[in-house]
Amino acid sequence: MSYTEEVYERVVAQNPGEPEFHQAVKEVLDSLKVVIDRNEEKYRSLSILERLVEPERIISFRVPWIDDNGNVQINKGYRVQFNSAIGPYKGGLRFHPTVNQSILKFLGFEQVFKNSLTGLPIGGGKGGSNFDPKGKSDREVMAFCQSFMTELSKYIGADTDVPAGDIGVGGREIGFLFGQYKRIRGLYEGVLTGKGLTYGGSLIRTEATGYGVVYILNELMQAHNDSLEGKTVVVTGSGNVAIYAIQKATQLGAKVVALCDSNGYVYDPNGINLDVVKDIKEVKRGRIKEYADRVEGATYTEGTGIWNIKCDVYLPCATQNELDVDGVKTLIANGCKYIVEGANMPTTREATEYAMANGVLFLPGKASNAGGVATSALEMSQNSQRLSWTAEEVDAKLHQIMKDIYAKIDDAAKRYDMPDNFVAGANIAGFEKVVDAMIAQGLV
Ligand code: NDP
């Protein structure tokens, strides 16, 4: 049995009931096999893979809070501090009823490689809670965030662990979390990113993940003598990543015709009107169904199936495992040529392999959605300097980072004779830097 297979079996045996974590580890280890095989003895003797798949620390805690009816509610809170070889832990907080340790370990593990690809000094972590902010009042969200941070504040700091937003954690939640950290620790420091502009946030951070997805898509297309101009695009989700991917794709000449939320999807043949989406999602915190009531010519379909809409480019920006092999087959049959992940692991393993084997140019989330965390790292730099850069400066840096990521994953794929296999390219390029730093720092 190869070293990578051995370590995968060990992960499955030692982490029962964590299917998402197993899935993420398998995908990475499978593509690292070519790298490991060339130097197996050295990696084995240092137990590099065993160390890579074991989080440095997992903190889990109780989050008590009181709802608007005066009832006590209890949620679970977590922080997975996965790997700090190249910098302080960095990664988002997710508030969603499905959150559990498996999902946060998969996200933390992916984050290690993603953060490495950005070229910036940030290690990997992830956290969150099974709290559902949907339908809660602002007061309830604040009560929850304050209780969550009361515990989390013991383990984070500007030079140790810097969380950010993710699903269910946007500007409102980051504000409440920051306020409570400051109150408890007495420190005004860059302990969270995605902050508001009046208290240390960075311009372009809100837009960064979605913009980054489209910047790297653009690199991929240019490298294949193609462009976004006149292309039809389908984006899934209607949250932070989706909204700004739609905005940038539209600016670059594409027509985005569909988006969704977890209840259903909207098709607008005239091109999605983003002002309406922002009003529904960012202001009213409503459902995407309302779009069809407000925009003439748009239709709403309840349930899944957004992949049935014909497109050249598909950008899954909602959640993990949202796109399966049947969805990919339909996309390909309808002429889709590019799938670029905005979400983390939105495409199942089988669907990813099918897409790549059938001529789709595919970019994995750990490369294509890295613009968010990269801009978070730029926010950290600004906080440390006590300076704010202009939107143009941050956007230019983000754009360059996405170009560099494309160059790195393309180069790694070519070095190992797998041109256009960007899944392998991203895993290998991310791994090389982290492992070099781990080896240099000894057995810690
Ligand atoms: P948001 O909470 O802002 O939006 C998530 C969107 O996805 C919502 O529209 C939500 O709909 C929809 N959604 C969730 N589950 C499903 C489902 N099963 N089917 C269809 N739609 C669904 O989150 P973000 O936009 O911030 O994050 C989206 C993805 O991008 C996540 O995988 C996240 O980890 C990843 N990501 C985010 C980054 C960031 O900077 N925000 C950075 C890098 C990655 P509903 O409202 O119905 O729940």
Shape: globular
Note poorly predicted spans: none
Tell me what portion of residues adopts beta-strand conformation. 15-25%
- The overall pLDDT, averaged over residues, is 97
SSE class: alpha/beta
Bound molecules: NADPH dihydro-nicotinamide-adenine-dinucleotide phosphate
Number of beta-strand segments: 12
| Termini separation | 27 Å
> How large, in whole angstroms, is the Cα Rg?
21 Å
- How many strands, which pairing sense, and closed or not: the largest β-sheet? 7 strands, mixed
What count of helical segments does DSSP give? 17
> Percent of residues in helical segments?
40-55%
Order of helices and strands: HHHHEEEHEHEHHEHEEHHEEHEHEHHHH
Output the strand order for the largest sheet.
Answer: 9-8-7-6-10-11-12
Subunit structure: Homohexamer.
Pfam families: ELFV_dehydrog, ELFV_dehydrog_N
Protein name: Glutamate dehydrogenase
Organism: Blautia intestinihominis
